[in-house]
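Protocol step 4 of 6: structure prediction from sequence.
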Amino acid sequence: MSVKELELLAEKNRKRLVEVVYAAKAGHIGGDLSCLNVMTALYFHVMKGLTPNPTPRGEGNIMAADRDRFVLSKGHCVEALYVTLEAKGFLAPEVLDTLGKFGSILSGHPTIEVPGIEVNSGALGHGLSIGVGMAIAEKMNRNAYLNPTTPTSPTPTYRTFVLMGDGEQGEGSIYEAAMAGNKYQLDNLVAIIDRNHLQISGDTEDVMPIDSIKKRWGAFGWDVVEMNGDSMEDIVKTFDAIDYTNGKPHLIISNTTKGKGVSFMEGIAKWHHGVLNEEQCKAAVAEISDRIEKLSLNTKL
């Protein structure tokens, strides 16, 4: 997809997200909105092999063995993942509409009951460790399938992407995983920090300061870059520039806005887990619909 097509799709996903969270009367909408651009770019531009392949009996989906992996470490923002999976074809609209209802397979955090989700997550700090394991497994598999006399292929058969929150950076297990990523030279692993500066207790720098992230992760031996996570153009440019053969794990600091795309939510801590009323939902949908209409004039999607 082109940048313009991705922008339009992200806005459509954003509208769907607002509607779904409103109907469910629950959800971490602020963080959902801040990471939605990145998630849209990952599933529709960056990651490979994620075409849904329903089983003959319709019991979920079988995915290709060489597919790229995605771990949502900040699992409380699962609503953003759900709308992305719906757009990708893993979830039917009638399934997504069950969010918040009794008997739904959709929980408030990712679970493997849901087609397209790799791992249960949401206990903050665990996702990167899981991603490190996936990346090590890929390197082990790559070696096993090659002739012992042939040098290891420098190109990964699949990559692993882990999306973390910035408040999550206070978890010590993240830094154990960071050390392991460096030790095993996991250049097939990409970690992303959704740097929106706000967690449930307030500004990250008041709760538990994490700056300078770039220096910290660089000291762990990671290849660290920053990007504007509110700009689809910069997101695409940043992911396209990753060198998956440089012997270093990759960290992207995605500078974003909490509540991105809904003006009355942007940069407001209370929307970390806010419930919209009917008037707020209508206002948010109208604002997003206006952008969709403008983008649609110049984009075929």
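Step 5 (inspection) to follow. The first strand starts at residue 69 and ends at 72.
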